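Researcher: Quick test of sequence recovery. Tokens follow.
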């Protein structure tokens, strides 16, 4: 499985809540950073636990996956029945079909107010 296919499979397995199959795509030395919240998850068990424990009511819609060698960028929408829509932009490194590092930026529409100084430039 190539890097792009591994990331697509990751999101598909998370969407299916197939935690064992999703975990198989994560390297034993996995490190994932979430800069927006300042969190770091080390190891597949911790990262799978975060996915598994998130309150139900969500789905994943893959918008785009781009790959250049072992580096992969994915953009997914994650609508939730109670909290609304979230977006994730993820930067992955894939080695031998497994995700080894990730940096994920999670956000939601309206999460941050636009600064007033940009008003003249907005459409």
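Model:
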């Amino acid at each position: 499985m190539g890097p792009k296919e591994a990331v697509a499979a990751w999101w598909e397995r998370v969407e299916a809540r197939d935690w064992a199959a999703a975990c198989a795509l994560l390297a034993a030395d996995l490190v994932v950073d979430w800069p927006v919240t300042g969190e770091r998850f080390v190891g597949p068990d911790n990262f799978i636990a975060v996915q598994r424990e998130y309150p139900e009511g969500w789905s994943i819609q893959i918008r785009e996956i781009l790959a250049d060698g072992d580096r992969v960028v994915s953009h997914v929408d994650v609508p939730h029945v109670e909290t609304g829509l979230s977006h994730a932009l993820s930067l992955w490194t894939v080695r031998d079909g497994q995700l080894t590092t990730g940096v994920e930026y999670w956000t939601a529409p309206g999460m941050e107010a636009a600064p007033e100084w940009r008003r003249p430039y907005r459409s």
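The helical segments are 3-15, 19-23, 44-53.
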